[in-house]
Amino acid sequence: MSFDQLGEELEARKQQSLYRQRRILQSPQAPEVQVDGKNYLAFCSNDYLGLANHPQVISALQKGAEKYGVGGGASHLVNGHSQAHHALEEELAEFTGRPKALLFSTGYMANIGAVNALIDKRDAVFQDRVNHASLLDAGLLSGARFQRYLHNDAKNLETRLQRSEARRKLVVADGVFSMDGDLVDLPAISDAAQRHNAWVMIDDAHGFGCIGKGGRGVVDHFDMTPDQVQVLVGTLGKAFGTSGAFVAGSEELIETLVQHARTYIYTTSMPPAVAEATRASLRLLQQEEWRREKLNHLIQRFRAGCEQLGLTLIDSPTPIQPIMVGESEKAMQMSAALEQQGIFIGAIRPPTVPQGEARLRVTLSASHTEEQLDRLLDALEKAQQECGL
Ligand code: PMP
Question: Which EC number(s) are documented for this chain (predicted)?
């Protein structure tokens, strides 16, 4: 059988402006990047605090490699669990105010592993309809009855919880929605869950480092306690500037994951040097409050500038500031018009976001300057005129 049919399907994606294309980055993560041989000012990285390229984080990685070598060598349960991993887990447990934390090699794997260790076909999982793909996939893989409630709508969630007679009920949501930038309505969602004896799992991939006291994320922001959000996930590839993820929670939760989470058990541990680098970034993330202050200042300035231009934003208090465009083709045109002016921002299209909700996903970082932000606003104004947005 030939691949002709696949070729036709790929061509159709191109016609619909849905084709995804990789670009080659030839510089470190920073506001000024080199992509495919050209220099750009980038507003699409998740390196929200500017730690991915921080000298102390790089130095910790180098020292870690000298001490432990490069590869993790084996899974955590064989002999891949190093002192570096263990120390980072203890520091993450303290950071999140929970008895234990467990490292995973990626956020995708943490979500798949945690959900599938907790529920199966006797159970039900309730997901915000715009949850990250890894949460949705985790729920589908579990075989539990899968339900999506309206975005951030605790009433709609509660109606569904009320009707369910499943053995276990797990409510799952992003802490900061990855394509919208808004926060989960945690008080209302957790109240609804509590009334119906359901567990709450929050994936705060984009909240840690950016919001809450000392960057402690959305649970801290809403002053919630560990018994209101029993399963807390964080990823390390965003504000932490490194790679990997963790789940934090009770002794029983973490021990259950060690016993049953297949994406923990059957994979090589992250390189120990990455754990050492993350320990350095965790210290910086907590100590350097100025990074969050600067980020918040840039967010306010960006939002005010967009309002003046009449661009449509989402009500987001986070560094994720999507500009809503509508059709995929228009989003691609805008992205290209910005690229012509030396600005790099990805167009996000279906199926990552719902039909008709294509957008430019602008992300801000504490490493951007005010001047760079003003360059972005000028370029947006020009692109808007060119594309008739
Ligand atoms: N959860 C959310 C909300 C995310 O946005 C992402 C990554 N974009 C992930 C999980 C996956 O994390 P990782 O990149 O570490 O696999």
Answer: 2.3.1.47
State the total domains in the chain. 2
Q: Which stretches of the chain drop beneath a pLDDT of 50? A: none
Angle of helix 83-96 versus helix 55-68 axis, rounded to 10? 140
Domain, as residue range, for 109: 55-287
CATH of the domain at 299: 3.90.1150.10
DSSP characters for 236-276?
A: SSSTT-S--EEEEE-HHHHHHHHHH-HHHHTSBPPPHHHHH
How many angstroms is it from 119 CA to the middle of ligand 1?
A: 21
ipTM reported for the complex, 2 dp: 0.99
Q: What are the residues whose beta carbons fall under 8 Å from the beta carbon of 149, sequence distance 6 or more?
A: 126, 127, 128, 129, 156, 157, 160
Three-class secondary structure of residue 147 per DSSP: strand
Q: Do residue 149 and residue 251 come from a single domain?
A: yes
Query: What is residue 101's predicted lDDT score, i.e. its pLDDT?
Result: 98
In short, whether 205's Cβ falls inside 6 Å of ligand 1 is yes
